[in-house]
Amino acid sequence: MTTSPTATPATTPAATPGVAPESAQSGQSAPVTVPPFAVISGAQVQRALRGREERIVELVEATYRLHGAGDSVNPPSYFLRFPDRPTSRIIALPASVGGGVRVDGLKWISSFPQNVAAGVPRASAVLILNDHDTGYPFACLESSIISATRTAASAALAADRLGRGRPRPTRVGFFGTGLIARYIHTFLAGTGFAFEHIGVHDTSPESAAGFRTYLEQSGAGGVITVHESPEQLVRTCDLLVFATVAGTPHVHDVSWFAHHPLVLHVSLRDLAPEILLESANFVDDVEHCLKAETSPHLAERLTGGRDFLSGTLDDVLSGRTAVPADRTVVFSPFGLGVLDLAVGKFVHDEVARAGELHVVEDFFHELRRYG
Ligand SMILES: NC(=O)c1ccc[n+]([C@@H]2O[C@H](COP(=O)([O-])OP(=O)(O)OC[C@H]3O[C@@H](n4cnc5c(N)ncnc54)[C@H](O)[C@@H]3O)[C@@H](O)[C@H]2O)c1
């Protein structure tokens, strides 16, 4: 592996003098070149993204708009499950995004919840970026950070845009305090949210204590309260973040939401469908979200229809749908592969610009069709 000495153009992978025998032979004018293949570590990903919350939220918004305009391909995620390890899974998210990003690819992300007991993060992931013109993969990136970043950026964007008609929240509550909760807090703080009170509830006291320590060290301020009671957390917060690993709803009481909070339902399966039916519901993508036993999926089953949905986040960004200020608002994002691609391509271009791409020489070795 070598460090690439040259910077890469912002929107296309760097092209080496690869091989173009077919186009040359067929007389086409544009040469086809195979891009070099780079491996980008988690440390490089983190350096490229750290402290750039506002820039990443803009990128995520632009990608939602591309997706909403149809300039993307985002088929259903594929869930690989194991009969002998029922709580674990690996998900494949293939996608293609157009616009100025113009890249195809695949996120391959595993969730092994038992890792947490050993102090190892639950999720691990890689992201493969494929060249738009040749289809050749040109980068493999550590992607648990990219995944957490795009999820948190999407949550911060939703908190801003779905909350514009109501007072800025001052009391935030976190249900579930793992890596995703930490990233969401970082993105909220990094995009201008300031909280007087931060409430925390987790079924694991160790996780809640670890999150409290993170909050204290983050310097974000605010009085921190660890709630034993989920009801107290809901009732005392005007912005709620669900980032648990619950597989079935554990919050059922509609009356807890009488003060109409804004809810970022990132973990998708925490709220009983009855709560959604009393709320204005926004998703990232309707077809994606009404699957896999999510709370919106349960609400669809219960009612036999989709009338309980108010729209997508893109409907709100584009001004097609208004958000009520006098109802509970729930955002349930399934998590789109196009967001991983957009953030991954951003990271690739930043690392290339810094001249720090670790190119694997001769990764693709059979490059002459006829030898
Ligand atoms: N929608 C998206 O785009 C998206 C993207 C990434 C992750 N996620 C989801 O976010 C969730 C959190 O991910 P993570 O990596 O932070 O997980 P994690 O395992 O690090 O943390 C989850 C925490 O939730 C706690 N918990 C479990 N059940 C709970 C309950 N009923 N009440 C309160 N706390 C509870 C656990 O004790 C743990 O501390 C996962 O469900 C993951 O699938 C969603």
Automatic annotation (TrEMBL):
Pfam families: OCD_Mu_crystall (PF02423)
InterPro entries in the record: NAD(P)-bd_dom_sf, ODC_Mu_crystall, ODC_N, SbnB
Source superkingdom: Bacteria
Region (Disordered): 1-31
Low complexity biased stretches: 1-17
Protein name: 2,3-diaminopropionate biosynthesis protein SbnB
Species the sequence originates in: Streptomyces gamaensis
